[in-house]
Write a structure and sequence with these properties.
Length: 528
């Protein structure tokens, strides 16, 4: 069926777009530990080692450690299992996917002039899937207090600059299609008449309003600015289900250059191009048996939402590795903020069933078949410092440790002087904090066979440590050197707890999620 596509005008303020929040910012601020199989097997602790294509994402000086030209590609299997607890009811869901998560190469140009202290120059190009968004979460349980009506009431009663959305806007005229009204509220609503009104808020109020979704109604028909009331029966014990299906990726293409001074000091730089493609489909269901009167009230509700976000970004990295002795290596690297330019598209559908003490009525279907296409916005994710230490046991093995710190409180939507973004940025500054990360890796060689193990710990970016908890991860793997060809295999496991609200405002109840990440990676490397 045909969908209408339109642009929500921002006018003098950007508050007409749908509400970006902390969860949207965190999606692009956090990276998974991805890369080559050797990198993953050793917990990503490569800041003082280099010599691996994925080490460039930690410290760009690492490409100057390569002795020969090298090209590599990595395939990975991602398995994510989510255990949900919603008011004591436990459910689980999992997702399994295969992706090409790394591909790149490095060229090494040796300086054969014996009098020069600059021994080599290396250039590299490397692509990595820094975040795999393929995931499924299912939560279900009985909410003893709150209903989905709070979501629609929140937008309807505060969408007009803190005042109720005028009922004349959310009431369909005789013969008017839902799609026409939905489009009008989002696209052509005169800002001079309602300068404080959010088009997205008006759309939510319209969908839930009596005669459309039948979830809310005005308290006083004779008052054009009346507040809204719920048409969901009171009494609590609302059975609710929430499904979240996400897919997509966050990719990073790095252009690297590095040099070696006396084979003791390595210095490098990355220029990084970021690109993201993310889709989230959510389906919420609610049922109750509270209505025993002759008045029509909501028995069941189905609310579907889709968000599609895409865009590009830029960042840079600088770093150095010092070979203090033949055994001891030290590294220091800085990764700048990433500056994103993002675009959002949304679609919605609401189906409700009302009933009374006699029985149920036919379903009310609110399906505008409209794609909201929003103007671009900017997001600045925080930078990161990484300090590293490695000890090399000759040609038999090594031990490496990385310590990184990132201040998530510096995450910002832009322009920062916009009233809406200013509020979101202040909230992020209040709720987010510095997050430290420790990565430990070890490798032991038995002739042509390499055995590897790693550990990773990452602190919560939240001050409360409950919205997103600490991450613990373990990894292991092996590699075999065939000469000009190397094959590496790795397995990594990580777990993290989080609390995920079903909606961003009004109805903010959510489930406690225990997520377990399992990854198997295979890398093929070719030396020239």
């Amino acid at each position: 069926m045909k969908k209408y596509i339109f642009l929500i005008l921002t006018g003098l303020s950007i508050n007409t777009i749908h509400s970006q929040g902390i969860s949207d910012a965190m999606r692009y601020s956090q990276d998974n530990l991805n890369g080559t199989a050797r990198f993953r097997a050793m917990g990503g602790a490569f800041g003082a080692l280099g010599g691996d294509l994925s080490s460039l994402n930690i410290n760009p000086a690492g490409s100057a450690v390569f002795a020969n030209n090298q090209f590599g590609v990595t395939l990975s299997n991602y398995n994510t299992k989510n255990n949900s607890n919603y008011f004591g009811a436990k459910t689980n869901e999992s997702n399994n996917s295969f992706i090409l998560n790394q591909a790149g190469g490095v060229l090494v140009f040796n300086n054969y002039h014996s009098k020069s202290n600059w021994k080599k120059i290396s250039v590299a190009v490397n692509y990595e899937n820094t975040n795999n968004y393929n995931n499924d979460i299912f939560s279900a349980g009985v909410n003893p207090t709150n209903s989905i009506d709070q979501y629609f009431l929140s937008y309807a009663n505060t969408g007009n600059g803190g005042a109720p959305v005028p009922q004349e806007l959310v009431t369909r005229k005789d013969g008017e299609y839902i799609s026409s009204l939905y489009r009008y509220l989002g696209n052509t609503l005169p800002s001079f008449q309602y300068p404080e009104l959010s088009g997205y808020s008006a759309q939510q109020a319209m969908m839930g309003f009596y005669g459309q979704g039948n979830i809310i109604d005005v308290a006083d028909l004779n008052n054009p600015n009346s507040r809204y009331i719920s048409l969901v029966p009171t009494g609590g014990n609302y059975y609710q289900e929430n499904e979240i299906h996400t897919n997509g990726y966050n990719g990073k293409l790095s252009f690297n250059a590095a040099t070696s001074y006396k084979d003791k000091l390595y210095i490098g730089i990355n220029l990084n191009s970021h690109f993201t493609d993310y889709t989230r489909n959510t389906s919420f269901y609610e049922h109750n048996n509270n209505n025993t009167t002759a008045n029509d009230q909501i028995d069941r509700a189905y609310f579907d939402n889709q968000l599609y976000t895409y865009g590009t970004g830029f960042s840079f990295q600088v770093g150095a590795i010092a070979k203090v002795t033949n055994q001891v290596r030290l590294g220091l690297a800085y990764e700048s903020n990433t500056w994103y330019k993002l675009y959002d598209e949304t679609t919605q559908k609401l189906v409700t069933v009302s009933g009374n003490n006699i029985g149920e009525l036919p379903p009310a279907i609110v399906d505008p078949q409209i794609v909201n296409i929003y103007e671009s916005y900017k997001l600045q994710t925080p930078g990161k410092w990484t300090a590293s230490f490695a000890y090399v046991f000759g040609k038999t093995g090594l031990l490496s440790v990385d310590y990184a710190i990132k201040d998530y409180g510096n995450t910002k939507f832009k322009p920062t002087n916009d009233s809406f973004f200013r509020g979101v940025n202040n909230t992020m500054s209040d709720q987010l904090t510095n997050s430290s990360e420790v990565r430990i890796g070890a490798e032991y060689k038995i002739k042509l066979l390499s055995l590897r193990a790693g550990y990773r710990f990452e602190q919560s970016p939240y001050k409360n440590s409950s919205t997103i908890g600490d991450l613990n991860g373990y990894s292991g793997g092996l590699g075999y050197n065939f000469g000009s060809t190397k094959v590496d295999l790795a397995y990594s496991y990580a777990k993290r707890n989080s609390h995920q609200a079903f909606f961003s405002q009004g109805f903010t109840d959510g489930a406690n999620i225990n997520t377990k990440f399992n990854n198997v990676s295979l890398t093929m490397l070719f030396e020239l």
